[in-house]
Amino acid sequence: MDALEATLLLDFSIVAQVILIDLALGGDNSIVIGMAAKNLPPHLQKRAIIYGTIGAIVLRFTLAFIVSWLFHIPFLKTVGGILLIGIGIKLIGARNEEEDVKVEAKDSLWAAVRTIILADALMSLDNVLGIVGVTGNHWGLLIFGMLISVPIIIFGSTIVVKVMNKFPILMYIGGAILGWAAGGMLATDHYLAEYVSFIAAYPSEVKAALLVVTLAGGFIWKHVHNRQDAAAA
Asked: What sign has the CA pseudo-torsion 39, 45, 51, 54?
């Protein structure tokens, strides 16, 4: 029973990490949806949001499957881990920067739906990489976490953004999770272990080290931006 409880606790912890990462990295998605559907008549706006959301969810799972499969390519887990560190640093240090995604308002239902799906795909690559890294390719946890978090992102991003702005510590927690996940990806890359054996031998230390690197990098980036803003003012 103790083993079962420990497993359930671990699974719950991973799902919670997936949800936090998805929320932290997906706060702008509702803005994209609003921009794409704003020129539609009111009775079509709701349909565009629903259809676009369904398409975006399907596309996210497809991207997650592709990323999960690609991680079987030699050293790609290591590349993914390095990318996760960069995403974590950006999450902490540049969270106020807007996504460079241009969204044109559409006048027809299906044009708006296509725009929503495409824009969401462009903005969701970091989300997908993060959750695949956190779950360690465990599809049950990945699916469960995404099914919970994606609707929240799509329909409640405004609330999510306000919460994130009110409690900046959540951004640091999200960055720490990404750094820890990056360490896990490097530690489980069997191809890297053939050349750097201590990474596989000391996985916890590697995870902790990359967690610190991510937090430090994000803090430095944020501090530099704050100094630049102060100088500009």
From this structure: positive
- How far is the first Cα of the chain from the last one, in angstroms, to the nearest whole number? 60
How far apart, in whole angstroms, are the C-alpha atoms of residue 92 and residue 85?
A: 11
Taking the C-alpha atoms of residue 109 and residue 107, their distance in angstroms, rounded to an integer, is: 7
**pTM (2 d.p.):** 0.71
Helix axes 29-37, 109-135, angle to 10 degrees: 170
Q: How far is CA 17 from CA 141, 143, 146, 174, in A?
A: 10, 13, 11, 8
d(CA 63, CA 47) in angstroms, rounded, equals: 24
Confidence at 1, pLDDT banded by 50, 70, 90: very low
Identify whether the C-beta of residue 118 lies closer than 8 Å to the C-beta of residue 208: no
Mean pLDDT, to the nearest integer, of 198-204? Answer: 88
Please enumerate in sequence order all residues whose Cβ is within 8 A of that of 218, keeping only pairs 6 or more positions apart, or say none: 88, 89, 90, 91, 92, 93, 171, 172, 175
